[in-house]
Amino acid sequence: MTIFKFPQDFRWGTATASYQIEGATQEGGRGVSIWDTFARTPGKVYNGDNGDVACDSYHRYEEDIELMKKLGINTYRFSIAWPRIIPDGDGEINREGLDFYHRFVDALIAAGIEPFLTLYHWDLPQTLEDDGGWGNRRTVDAFVKYAEVIFKEFSGKINFWLTFNEPWCIAFLSNLLGIHAPGNKDLQTSINVAHGLLVAHGKAVQSFRRLGTTGQIGIAPNVCWAEPYSKSPEDQAACDRSIALNTDWFLDPIYKGSYPQFMVDWFAEAGATVPIQEGDMEIISQPIDLLGINYYTMGINRFNPEAGALQSEEVDMGLTKTDIGWPVESRGLYEFMHYLQKYGNVDVYITENGACINDDLENGKINDDRRISYYEQHLAQIHRIINDGINLKGYMAWSLMDNFEWAEGYRMRFGLVHMDYRSLVRTPKESYYWYQSVIKNNWLETRN
Ligand SMILES: CCOCCOc1ccc(-c2cn(C[C@@H]3NC[C@@H](O)[C@H]3O)nn2)cc1
Q1: Average pLDDT over residues 45-51
Q2: The overall pTM is greater than 0.95
């Protein structure tokens, strides 16, 4: 057994996102999002599931906050649904939507919990997608308008801000692989989306500064850590491409003011180019204050010319997997955090980490021991990272409760709290009580 003590000011939290938990998709003046449309498209989401009810947190957020208080967290990451604020994307502001989030944020603060806001967690107003989505500068300008509304409304209440969650998912999972909304499968479209959201990020950061908004702002890239299957240069290059498309493709423009040239050249071979306009890179590379890092797993990759746009395939090495099929390998988090140091020792928060473990209720309890084991291994790496002097400031478990897991619908469960989707009864799992003790002690005590 080992005891890992965390810094006194370390932030402990959980994370969710609007479309995944709120429900009430046709209440409060909310407009239609691309996920409402995608979920209603046959074959896109498991079982035809959608976010119409989800966890009904729109109506039950006080119950959720009670669970957070009992858990003992001091930080809660959530997202605001843009379609609740400006239902048609860039038109009239919906006061009812703002009032809902004021009630929610006020209740969080009253509970002694710091709001940690993601402005965009994938629920783009459908009207903007209909007009070209992130590849159209209209959407960029609409995002800035939306962001400025939120900055003005919540400055002073919110002090931790993220512009975008997982830009690789927004651009490539959703527009090259077609697995998430809106479901495009085109390389140039995905590169246009990535560039559009980066420009939107930069402009929003400029507005954040100009408006004197309180707190710190950043972005939350995906993490894809990959190590080569062999010592061959081809396998190492395949790993470099996988890592770069999740991280460098977004963080190089932000921190260096340019895209990673080897990836630009790689895509040029496929006939795809980045639609950079005059001044874009200066806008994108506005200084930011923090990074959110979402880590789930890592891969052992090798070169395969048939393996998609990156010609990089993950090899199944027989590791223990979670119920969504992702290998349990916490080592990648440590390696990635050191990789990230090339951008400087920036303030980092783990804004998502968790395991899909689909254990159900048995005699009124959920004995999700595998989830506890996953968290134990990853928190031990977190301690190792902090011990190396990396500015890792906080940790948010994904997720507070089981919720709508995108194309997997409700069959995949990431929560510390079990959700009965019929009764909407919330039941803390054994991992909830384990995490509660970690937070209370501010230390991890391994069980073996
Ligand atoms: C068969 C080919 O497959 C290609 C990879 O396909 C995926 C699918 C899904 C993910 C994925 C899902 N999550 C969890 C979410 N993060 C944000 C929050 O909303 C969580 O729900 N992170 N990454 C990655 C890759």
Answers
A1: 98
A2: yes
- Measured in Å, residue 296 CA sits from the centre of ligand 1 at 9
Q: Which of 118, 294, 297, 406 to mutate to test the pocket of ligand 1 (most atoms within 8 A of CB)?
A: 406
Residue-wise pLDDT for 69-127, tens only, equals 999 999 999 999 999 999 999 999 999 999 999 999 999 999 999 999 999 999 999 99
**281 touches 339 (CB < 8 A):** no
Pick the residue whose CA is nearest to atom 11 on ligand 1: 169
CA 67 to chain centre: 21
Q: What one-letter code names the amino acid at 156?
A: G
Active site residues: 166, 352
Amino acid, single-letter form, for residue 149: V
**Centroid of ligand 1 to alpha carbon of 241 (angstroms):** 18
CA–centroid distance, 445 to ligand 1, in Å, is: 30
CA distance 123 to 343: 29
Instruction: Extract long-range pairs of 193-196: CB within 8 Å, 24+ residues apart.
Output: 193/133, 193/134, 193/135, 194/134, 194/167, 194/170, 194/249, 194/250, 195/274, 195/275, 195/276, 195/280, 196/133, 196/134, 196/135, 196/136, 196/137, 196/139, 196/140
Q: Tokens in use for 168?
A: 């690789």
pLDDT tens readout for residues 253-269: 999 999 999 999 999 99
pLDDT digits (tens, 9 = 90+) for 201-227: 999 999 999 999 999 999 999 888 999
Mean pLDDT of 231-245: 98
Q: What separation in Å is there between the alpha carbon of 7 and the centre of ligand 1? A: 30
User: Measuring from atom 6 of ligand 1, which residue has the nearest CA?
Assistant: 173
pLDDT of the residue at 278:
98
Look at the alpha carbons of 52, 53, 54, 56 in this order and tell me if their dihedral is positive or negative.
positive
Residue 405 Cα: closest atom of ligand 1: 21
Q: Edge-to-edge, what's the strand order for the sheet holding 225-228? A: 225-228, 298-303, 312-314
How far apart are alpha carbons 306 and 161 in whole angstroms?
39
**Once rounded to an integer, what is the mean pLDDT over residues 233-241?**
98
Q: What does the mean pLDDT of the chain come to?
A: 98
Residues 6+ apart with CB under 8 A from 59: 23, 24
Element of type H or E holding 148: helix 137-154
pLDDT band at 183 (very low <50, low <70, confident <90, very high): very high
- In this structure, the number of other CB atoms found within 10 A of the CB of residue 171 comes to 26
Where helices occur in 184-279 by DSSP H, the ranges are 187-210, 233-246, 248-256, 261-269
ipTM (interface pTM): 0.95
Neighbours of 76 (CB within 10 A): 24
Say how many CA atoms lie within 13 Å of 158 toward its Cβ.
27
- In this predicted structure, the answer to whether residue 14 has a pLDDT above a threshold of 90 is yes
